[in-house]
Design goal:
Elements lengths: L20 H23 L16 H13 L3 H23 L4 H22 L6 H11 L7 H29 L5 H14 L4 H11 L3 H11 L3 H25 L8 H28 L4 H10 L2 H18 L5 H11 L1 H16 L18 H19 L4 H11 L7 H4 L1
Length: 420
Amino acid sequence: MSAGPGASEPPLPNNPSHRYQSLDAVRGVAVMGILIANMPGFALPAPAYFSPLAWGGTGPADLTAWFTTFVLIEGKMRGLFSFLFGASILLVIDRAQAAGQSAAAVHLGRMAVLLLIGLAHRYLIWWGDILAHYALVGAVAFIFVRLDQRRLLAAGLVVLVMTLAWNASTWNGLLWAGARSTPAQVEIWSNFAWAFGVPPSDWSTGEIAAMRASWSEQIAWRWQYLESEVSFLSAVGLETLAAMLLGMAAFRSGFLTGEWERAQYRHFAAWALGATFLAYALLALNTMWHGFDQRWVFFGSVVGTVPFRVLGAAGYAACIILLLRPGGSLTERVSAVGRAAFTNYLGTSLIVTGIFYGWGFGLFGTLSRAEIYIVPPLVWALMLTWSKPWLERYRYGPLEWLWRSLARLELQPMLRSAAS
């Protein structure tokens, strides 16, 4: 992703309180959009995240919901979050250096606190946490912060190719296991079924019973069945790093800070999203054609979409930047959601698990795949309602303040009047 004519690396604002509204708005859309992607993980047994055969129904409405979310949302919101996380790493480091602080100490301190918060989120609230993973990959990404935009772009593309090769080799092992004629093949096939196929029914019913039970029983289930952070890192760490590096390149080029010409954003968004939607639609149809066989669920969700997840994320970012209307009511509210994205992300977990888990209304596993998408608009309305008034009074969202205070080992000023 190269800069447009006349674009240069975005200057660091002299005023440390300055924010790039384009980054805030894109982050706001990402935290709202990722709720759609995460809904099957909140409301249905874990294998249903990828495969409708696992739970949630296979009627016309359910398959339409799966197809639509796969083409428009799946992977791209996570990619957008990773993209923005990379940009934020550079922004924080640039500001630390401008203030005469140690970039390594500031960055690694933030990642250490994020890791602890992410692990607490994962085991105490919801298994689908991404924060701990971002903390680990973000620590590695620090190695690349001194690169210029072209080297960041090259590094990101190299890591993306490595991701494709890694995922393809994993898929090849799944194809080999499809014969299920040896104990080793049966074991591999069964292990993949837990995430991409249809595991034994007692496993899904056991998860449903645990999620409808007490909070302590939910924690016990997660502690017993969740894979380790190291395993998750080995599975998707390369792809996350690639997206972060490309986000860094996009920040350095001025793409994420709104410095390109509008015609360039339009052109980029058109071809990036056009290619992404076409690829995803073909992969979705192929998965359906094969009857959601787990080999093709894995290929469509993990292998074939590798080049298009971050491309689609960048295309969405270009669209959002084009739609920005500084001073407009909706733009200001979406930007506020992005400024408090950390609070909104974790707050969403509390709200939605309260709807589906046993400590709340206990609706886990009771709604169809189509019905669970009633929830996101209600949560979006809450995000858009509270974020702007809060940030008009306070410098940070509640959890942004906590993260910043813990990372700096010092309580940060919260009230705007105190800051001024």
